[in-house]
């Protein structure tokens, strides 16, 4: 391999001059440690401006206290490449600094040491590289985890129906909010579309090409919340990934993190979240250092945070910090103009999905409008999907008995004796029953997930997971 090329028109090339002007800090010494060449930047880095160095050796410079240790001398002694931090003395105007040097030996044909060439980087450059490296690592871990995370998520929100004046107002406001980077707090009953709205904000923000990370704070067991949100270092706790892991905030770097059910965050975590919002820094569990994270926060809750503040269940300072831009999404029963367009949207979606062509009876439309929809749009989605599947003919006839109790629902499946056509596989029948039962429990408990979970005898996080699975 040839490393040096000379052409007709660069015969006068003077390599010494090029080395002297090089951006890199370069020092060449001979086998007796005499200085042969300094690049201008090396002179600056070692603070030797104006010093007469002709005929001087590295020993002389060390004797005069310019620096304390030399990788060039180490390299001469060990006859191999050596690296290390070299502390450079301060002066009246400049404080002591350090450079990272690497010295490489150059041997002649007989294996005798001829020169040592030393390259170095100063502190500022090293800090710059360290920061770049950290960002690179962050991005690498981010993208590694994102694919895993996204694959676990339910499908995207698809078409967003906004026929009512109140939803149109919300969406208009969202378009404005999207452009700013402020924290947003979305409130509204379960299933009204808080996540849909937060995705809309992200999709219309300058961060739209970055990741959107939805997190259901209520579904994460209390003792794991910190590790999930902020990540953890090696050996932070038993059962953890032995290499440590980035948290969801790091995953959302440059994008948006959607903190759903923020009211379920334990108080200890609330103060940590407040710190993150104030400083833009997170600290992995078990770590000592803080890391900068640039994630826009959109939070949501179906609880009354103000009341929680008065009861001491939610930090007042966090509430005010989150409540910079409050958005209230009305329950479906208060925006009836959305009911029929939503019903048709879901009907079309499920007809397409199952390759069917069902229609809704006139009676159904009236019933949909009269119903109070305690589970809001999620409930509607489930009802329509269910009727599309279980209606044998082409016309769907949906009716509701709002007075029906959950306990009655257990034995009161509509239709024939068994309640479902026998053509439905057992798994679908069981899923359908579970869905109805959960809906009935939610209806009985006025949409409160905590109460419904109690009635059903399952943990709140378990119920959240079931609801998410159901759509
Ligand atoms: N305006 C809308 N247009 C179309 N679909 C909607 C709309 N609003 C909600 N949905 C659908 O309803 C379901 C529930 O919405 P979403 O998950 O956003 O509600 P949520 O308020 O975040 O619920 P929770 O509080 O339980 O997390 C989803 O399947 C969503 O796609």
Automatic annotation (TrEMBL):
Q: Which PROSITE patterns match?
A: SIGMA54_INTERACT_1, SIGMA54_INTERACT_2, SIGMA54_INTERACT_4
> A Pfam family this protein belongs to?
Sigma54_activat
Task: Provide the Sigma-54 factor interaction domain boundaries.
Answer: 160-389
Q: Which UniProt keywords apply?
A: ATP-binding, Nucleotide-binding, Transcription, Transcription regulation
Q: Which InterPro entries match?
A: AAA+_ATPase (IPR003593), AAA_lid_NorR (IPR058031), Homeodomain-like_sf (IPR009057), HTH_Fis (IPR002197), P-loop_NTPase (IPR027417), PAS (IPR000014), Sigma_54_int (IPR002078), Sigma_54_int_dom_ATP-bd_1 (IPR025662)
Q: Does the keyword NADP apply?
A: no
Tell me which SUPFAM superfamilies the record gives.
Answer: Homeodomain-like (SSF46689), P-loop containing nucleoside triphosphate hydrolases (SSF52540)
Gene3D superfamilies on file: 1.10.8.60, Homeodomain-like, P-loop containing nucleotide triphosphate hydrolases
PANTHER family per the UniProt record, alphabetical: SIGMA L-DEPENDENT TRANSCRIPTIONAL REGULATOR YQIR-RELATED, TRANSCRIPTIONAL REGULATORY PROTEIN
The protein's name in its UniProt record: Transcriptional regulator with PAS, ATPase and Fis domain
What is the protein's species of origin?
Youngiibacter multivorans
């Amino acid at each position: 391999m040839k490393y040096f090329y000379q052409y007709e028109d660069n015969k006068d090339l003077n390599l010494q001059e090029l080395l002297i002007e090089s951006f890199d800090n370069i020092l060449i010494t001979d086998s007796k440690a005499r200085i042969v060449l300094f690049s201008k930047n090396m002179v600056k880095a070692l603070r030797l401006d104006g010093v007469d160095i002709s005929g001087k050796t590295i020993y002389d410079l060390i004797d005069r206290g310019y620096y304390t240790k030399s990788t060039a001398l180490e390299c001469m002694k060990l006859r191999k490449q050596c690296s290390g931090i070299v502390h450079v003395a301060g002066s009246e105007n400049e404080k002591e600094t350090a450079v990272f040097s690497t010295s490489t030996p150059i041997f002649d044909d007989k294996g005798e040491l001829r020169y040592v060439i030393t390259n170095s980087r100063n502190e500022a450059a090293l800090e710059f590289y360290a920061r770049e490296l950290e960002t690179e690592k962050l991005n690498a871990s981010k993208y590694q985890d994102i694919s895993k995370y996204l694959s676990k998520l339910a499908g995207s929100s698809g078409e967003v129906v906004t026929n009512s004046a109140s939803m149109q107002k919300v969406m208009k406001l969202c378009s404005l909010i999207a452009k700013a980077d402020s924290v947003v707090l979305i409130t509204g009953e379960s299933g009204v579309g808080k996540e849909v709205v937060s995705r809309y904000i992200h999709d219309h923000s300058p961060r739209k090409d970055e990741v959107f990370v939805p997190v259901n704070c209520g579904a994460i067991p209390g003792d794991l919340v910190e590790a999930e949100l902020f990540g953890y270092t090696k050996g932070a706790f038993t059962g953890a990934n032995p290499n440590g892991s980035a948290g969801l905030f790091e995953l959302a770097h440059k994008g948006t993190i959607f903190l759903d059910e923020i009211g379920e965050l334990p108080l200890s975590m609330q103060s940590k979240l407040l710190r993150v919002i104030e400083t833009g820094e997170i600290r992995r569990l078990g770590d000592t250092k803080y890391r900068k994270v640039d994630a826009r926060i959109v939070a949501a809750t179906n609880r009354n945070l103000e009341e929680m503040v008065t009861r001491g269940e939610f930090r007042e300072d966090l509430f005010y910090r989150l409540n910079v831009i409050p958005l209230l999404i009305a329950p479906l029963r208060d925006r009836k103009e959305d009911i029929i367009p939503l019903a048709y949207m879901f009907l079309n979606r499920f007809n397409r999905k199952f390759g069917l062509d069902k229609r809704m009876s006139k009676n159904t439309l009236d019933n949909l409008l009269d119903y109070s929809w305690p589970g809001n749009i999620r409930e509607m989605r489930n009802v329509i999907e269910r009727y599309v599947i279980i209606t044998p003919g082409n016309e769907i006839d949906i009716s509701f008995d709002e007075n029906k109790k959950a306990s009655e629902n257990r034995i009161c499946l509509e239709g024939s004796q068994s309640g479902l056509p026998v053509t439905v596989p057992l798994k679908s029948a069981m899923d359908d029953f579970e869905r109805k039962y959960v809906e009935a429990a939610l209806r009985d408990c006025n949409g409160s997930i905590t109460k419904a979970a109690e009635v059903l005898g399952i943990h709140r996080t378990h119920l959240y997971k079931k609801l998410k699975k159901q759509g």
